[in-house]
């Protein structure tokens, strides 16, 4: 599975640090391990004794920080950084985070992962009061709310602002003398706290960053929590008591790196369990298991172990498949020219293949991979998906806000099986998914948001309520690209 | 394992096509699948009814062909292309292939994979006769020999030239009206013939290119063979009868893509067999198997199946680890900052790990990975290598021409085990390697060149004879970078 | 004289058009002719039936618009554009104009040439009311004032905002259905109106843009005037009656292109008259006149005609002297290596040279040119400057806001003559300057701002009042770089 | 006049130095002052105690040497450099000079200004003997001839090679221990010798480089001369006695920088004399003189002084007119959009203008400038050209090798006057040109090659003889672009 084909994208990765001589450089390496969360923009703001310094641009981290000077100029012992996934057409530099706000009397750096559900309403109200928004993203709203709050204390202003915005969010806010991290009341997005050997505190969207920089995981940020880090250490506060964990289940299924651990559950291990459970729910005869690289390799391992079927490398992903402007013509595509994935004939020829993938969004990718395997000689292709049918959009930070492109919102599993040309199609049950992840919590759905699968959103939808209800009634118009 | 650390590099990948309206574009996609064979330069020469057109530059294929025009200008129905691995300091544009030769009366395109063992002597002789060499590579020598041959026929000139050069070579020569492929008498380098659905003939260093472009494999080029493709079809000829298959065993161990098949043996399958055989030769207790991504994942699968130990994803390779100018300082490195590979604590903590890798060159990478695993909590790390000890250089196209950097030429396995901090170190036996590959042939060593392991070179070494013998006697001066 | 050495820089050039199918392209060509007014950033906003589209970046126009697509995407029949001169350290993309403001209900494009004298105070007040400034320039202030005005009509809001900002300014404001141009009450910065053959209205900082795009000059915008252009044509309004023309005299002396005409006076002709008047005030014997290319060639012509001395090409400016990172070492500089200007020995050898230049800012350039001429064999070098001594800073849009770097604020003409190594030094008298320009007006100083020469600022200085008065008392610390 | 419109281009500029610690850097500055002689490629080869180091690429010098490292790596105390003008389609990197030849036993650097008349024949003969040419330019031929010479001494080989090539050439050859400069037997191309303050010897295509680097002119290289510079100093030799000075007259008219001096004649002064003589030959009434910037400003000065008519700045060249991909559409062009040159209405309105230009090649530029002046209000435009009618091609290094594009080879002066829309057209007489330049010599035509004007070529034309004679008879097919 590749990002290009599936329109299922996380919005961003965050990293912050306080108390390290090479703060910007550590942030760079932290962001480097979060690059899978966003490839369209990156930036770092460092804090040199109250002076904030910024560097950001569109592109991959290695394209944004081209020469050592780009990083060296970001002096100071604290920093926040961001990698950005941007929806089409808005990949402009003015949306790349962290944002740097230079007021006459103070400075702030701000970055954000998630999506607000009342952004449109808030923007209108603020504009009516004279506010000017520079970027098209939601992120600025928080800064406007903080600046306009009449609460006498700065932390009071921040809490008031956090109680005004709704939806899914993890924020990092760098002030002149502290670093603040905040998470929404449902903890939709992951955010963890770590500590480096030299005592520096770090926060990161995923724990894989801690492995990379040699930090030790301390604990995950809780829903509705405020974390304040300054020269005197770390303190914890809350801005609301009405919280209930509902972490995005797709983080476990697809987004997060397998070496990350979220709420005590290692992602690779969760995926193996999903694969094993999927094997138990699977009801067909087969010879070999083939995972779609790279995201489904863990699930394929679990499927293989539970089923006893050998796990084979029947699909190869080209390591050099990034950005190219050269694309096959339609004719070449028909002749079989493909750049990213190829099937290994000598592995799959004559075999009944269980093709393990994590999810089906539009179905186009699945159809192509089934075709690849069949052309390479597979006698049967049984598609096994490590998550339930994706039927509903997400409003908390994943880039599916319309049902039109979700094949499962429009077709039954049987129809989809036929459309993608598979010999059978098995989805993991919702219970199977929840059990496989297995967070230790009393929250409903095992502490997970599974709204994409069952349509039960854990919060009111605010600005999205009406369009969502309308989309449920409306006749969809999904057509598969042939 | 990463290219940057290990100085073990193939020299180049070749692709050629005759008889397709989009010849240059198909060549682009073919080369794209061969990118792992060389990342420092790329080029294509197309043939538009006798007019040869070229585009080449340093860098990855996607950097060389930046805009569609770069490729669109290469019109015509035949083409040859090349991806280049270059030794340090010579990555200049003048060495990037294919070379285009425009004589007053005819034109040629030429590219080459391999290394000549008598290049220095031939160059001196030719210079003494007035020849001027433009590039520092060996490749031009063939063109000088062809042009100076007194043989009356063109194919006679080519054969005379091929009988003069010695060593390992696969050549593609584009003339105004045909495409010629030639392989050295030992077939040190792989070269395969395929056919597209529209009837176009293709040749490629690896069969993975055929999967990508939708071509069918026809057969591999034989040692000492000449393949001539023109508008009337394909014909086969030989320039020598003194041939004996000795294909580079490292192609199976490390270089080739797992989905390629060489002399009837699929590379992934061979690697699984190496892993399985390694498991049989392995004599320690362990809990889990962890392959070093990406090259050793197949061997780890085989080891797991044969040993019954679970195959786990204990090491994660960052998908975005290519080219960056930002490097950790020494201090950060000590704090644990690493960009390319990280160990997954939740997987390896408290476990006795079998770390499966394909080979050890200098030992630095192995030492780092062992350390990674131990820091992540592995209780024991048993290193299992899918090939024998690498003790001797190669003169046929792999970039190890000195024994100084080979740790196995300087230390015993016991010493190396201590140096890399492992709890045990197991190499695959030479017999185990040969059996695992299992080419159907009567040639010695199962049709493989295993000189890096046993020092028995299948040919005289010509210009390298004296320096090689001297290196065997000389006290080596290998020091591990601490 | 070159921009690099002299720190005397205009802040920006403006161009706008309404009613042309190729509006963005015409704007590009208009800006191209204004490139001398700013080389550090450029941008265009087009208006396609109410939808505003933007492209802007740092660098020269040809660097910002690199490929035809950059311009082609700016569809629509109206546009505004800007070339920017930026003070050091703030050459970031976020300051490049025109700014695009996308509110929920409407959009604006805004660009600005000039400098506000009450920007700091206004910013503080606005920030206190919750305003967030994105860029470090003054320009955004106007938009905040417009949006916060309680005036019921849009033009009322604009007028209120224009009456609130103080200093030197020319604004172009693109709304969804009109283009508005506004000039400060003193008309410090030039702004002209023209008409294209197809009927499209254009506004430009200089009339040279009209020559280039084939437009006819209509008239100059008046101090305190508002020009509104929409589909029904052009209308004129005012936002204040307290106006008095005080156009920047340095526009005539140095900034504007010689082919521009400002307030009825052609710049080349004015410079010739300055040169002629300078010749009349000049009291030394000499053989030839040499103008410093390119800005002083007109004055040199006038000097030559009035004095009867031949005008010679004794100094040559390298046409290719733009941006290079290769600079001579100190040692090479001493050996005479110079990249931008060279003296022609065969012209100046043994001659008493009148070196005509337009102004002396820091004196370093003058000293180098005198030295060049002497090394090339000039027997005497008499420096004749086409303007009076530059003693005071400017707060209306020219980049001299400190007296520290003005050599004439620190030394007498006699001392400067010695410092630059000249045989004599003659400045044009203030009366001579005013007469040479000769605008038809009853305003004081012939309608010119000559505050840099006499310290009499035509307006209160607001935020700059205190620092300015302090600078007059304070002992300056001017040191010539040796 | 601009390079883009006129197809009249010099082929290259040369610079060499021996004996300076910053040899490559001085070469850079020398080449910088020769940039007008070629903008399509540049390179430097330095000599560090016998080790030759190269850097070269397509583009302007500032594009080729982008970062200080590009130059810093060229260590050593001697260097040669080259700026290249390339004919269309051959602007590839492989043609950029100096060429670096690395033989097993020695190294050479070679660069060339000029054109050989027997290159095609020589290339064929050499190829028949096995020679392989890498580039499409003539330059390599000399190296092949040197390497194939049987003369026992190296200087003997060089002389033999120089006697074999025919046409116009200036060569710089860097060996491991000396720098050799050579000029053709007619001295078609300029080449001068200078000395730096530290004693280093320099050679340059033009003396303007000496002014820039602070070197003193010593003397010009003579026709048929060989200059050898090494650690023991400079020595002079000849390779032929059959010499006769015939320096390209277009160097004085158009190519060379005005501050250069060639064979004792300063270019600016020569141009002023051409202008003065042109004024004496001119037979019309007029009000003002306007030179076409930049090449005709000197001639306009001379015309003005001799005629008594005022010299005015009626045409302005945009200082920022280099490379842009944005071009006016045909419609915009008709509306008057022009990027490079504009006429100053306030200067030319109602005036009878003498428009002084240096030459007319195709006539398109002249027609446009006449039109510009008329649209700006000039009542009459009298075109005065500072050279005779350009009727014949050049084979010695200027890029006119066909008569088809020369308007004067196809039309009479009267017809051309009408075509370009002028009120009169006056060419300088051939005698006037020769007298105005005035080299002190007894050689025919005052030591000048004036073949473009009278068709009398000073040498046999070899490979060009037949096509030239054919072109004289053939009906030409010149059509002016409307």
UniProtKB/TrEMBL annotation, chains A, B, C, D:
Pathway(s) per entry: Purine metabolism; IMP biosynthesis via de novo pathway; N(1)-(5-phospho-D-ribosyl)glycinamide from 5-phospho-alpha-D-ribose 1-diphosphate: step 1/2
Catalytic-site annotation from UniProt: 12
GO MF terms held by the record: amidophosphoribosyltransferase activity; magnesium ion binding
Domain Glutamine amidotransferase type-2: 12-232
Entry keyword set: Glutamine amidotransferase, Glycosyltransferase, Magnesium, Metal-binding, Purine biosynthesis, Transferase
First-tier enzyme category under EC: transferase
Cofactors that this protein relies on: Mg(2+)
Binding residues for Mg(2+): 295, 357-358
CDD domains with a match to the protein in the record: GPATase_N, PRTases_typeI
Signal sequence, start to end: none
Keyword Magnesium: yes
One GO biological process term: 'de novo' IMP biosynthetic process
Catalysed transformations (reactions): 5-phospho-beta-D-ribosylamine + L-glutamate + diphosphate = 5-phospho-alpha-D-ribose 1-diphosphate + L-glutamine + H2O
Pfam families, alphabetized: GATase_7, Pribosyltran
Keyword Glycosyltransferase in record: yes
Enzyme Commission designation: 2.4.2.14
Note on cofactor: Binds 1 Mg(2+) ion per subunit.
Family note: In the C-terminal section; belongs to the purine/pyrimidine phosphoribosyltransferase family.
Purpose: Catalyzes the formation of phosphoribosylamine from phosphoribosylpyrophosphate (PRPP) and glutamine.
PANTHER family listed in its UniProt record: AMIDOPHOSPHORIBOSYLTRANSFERASE (PTHR11907)
Descriptive protein name: Amidophosphoribosyltransferase
Gene name per UniProt: purF
């Amino acid at each position: 599975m590749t990002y290009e084909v599936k329109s299922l994208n996380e919005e961003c990765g965050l990293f912050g640090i306080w108390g390290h001589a090479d703060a910007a450089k550590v942030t760079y390496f932290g962001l480097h391990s979060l690059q899978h969360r966003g490839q369209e923009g990156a930036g770092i703001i460092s804090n040199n004794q109250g002076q904030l310094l910024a560097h950001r641009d569109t592109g991959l981290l290695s394209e944004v920080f081209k020469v050592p000077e780009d990083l060296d100029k970001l002096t100071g012992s604290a920093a926040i950084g961001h990698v950005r996934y941007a929806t089409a057409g808005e990949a402009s530099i003015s949306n790349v985070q962290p944002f740097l706000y230079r007021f006459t009397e103070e400075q702030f750096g701000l970055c954000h992962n998630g999506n607000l559900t009342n952004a449109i309403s808030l923007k209108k109200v603020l504009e009516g009061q004279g506010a000017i928004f520079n970027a098209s993203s939601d992120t600025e709203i928080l800064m406007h709310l903080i600046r306009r709050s009449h609460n006498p204390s700065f932390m009071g202003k921040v809490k008031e602002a956090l109680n005004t915005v709704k939806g899914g969010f993890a924020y990092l806010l760098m002030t002149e003398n502290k670093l603040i991290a905040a998470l929404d009341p449902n903890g939709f997005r992951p955010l963890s706290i770590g500590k480096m050997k030299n005592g520096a505190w770090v926060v990161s969207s995923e724990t894989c960053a801690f492995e990379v920089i040699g930090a030790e995981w301390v604990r995950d940020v809780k829903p509705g929590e405020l974390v304040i880090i300054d020269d005197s250490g770390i303190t914890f506060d809350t801005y609301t008591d009405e919280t209930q964990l509902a972490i995005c289940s797709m983080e476990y299924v697809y987004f997060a790196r397998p070496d990350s651990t979220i709420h005590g559950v290692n992602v690779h291990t969760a995926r193996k369990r999903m694969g094993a459970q999927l094997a138990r729910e699977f009801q067909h005869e087969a010879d070999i298991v083939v995972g779609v690289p790279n995201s489904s390799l863990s699930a394929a391992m679990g499927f293989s172990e539970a089923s006893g079927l050998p796990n084979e490398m029947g699909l190869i992903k080209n390591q050099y498949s990034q950005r190219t402007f050269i694309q096959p013509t339609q004719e070449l595509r028909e002749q079989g020219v493909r750049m990213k994935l190829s099937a290994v004939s000598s592995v799959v020829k004559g075999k009944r293949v269980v093709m393990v993938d994590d999810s089906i969004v539009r179905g186009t990718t699945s159809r192509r991979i089934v075709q690849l395997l069949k052309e390479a000689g597979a006698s049967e292709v049984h598609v096994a998906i490590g998550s339930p049918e994706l039927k509903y959009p997400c409003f908390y930070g994943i880039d599916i806000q319309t049902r039109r492109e979700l094949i499962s919102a429009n077709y039954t599993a049987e129809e989809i099986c036929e459309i993608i040309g598979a010999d059978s199609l098995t989805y993991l049950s919702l219970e199977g998914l929840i059990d496989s992840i297995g967070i230790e919590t009393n929250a409903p759905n095992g502490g997970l948001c599974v709204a994409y699968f069952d349509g039960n959103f854990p919060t009111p939808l605010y600005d999205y309520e009406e369009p969502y209800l309308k989309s449920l009634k409306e006749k969809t118009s999904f057509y598969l690209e042939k």
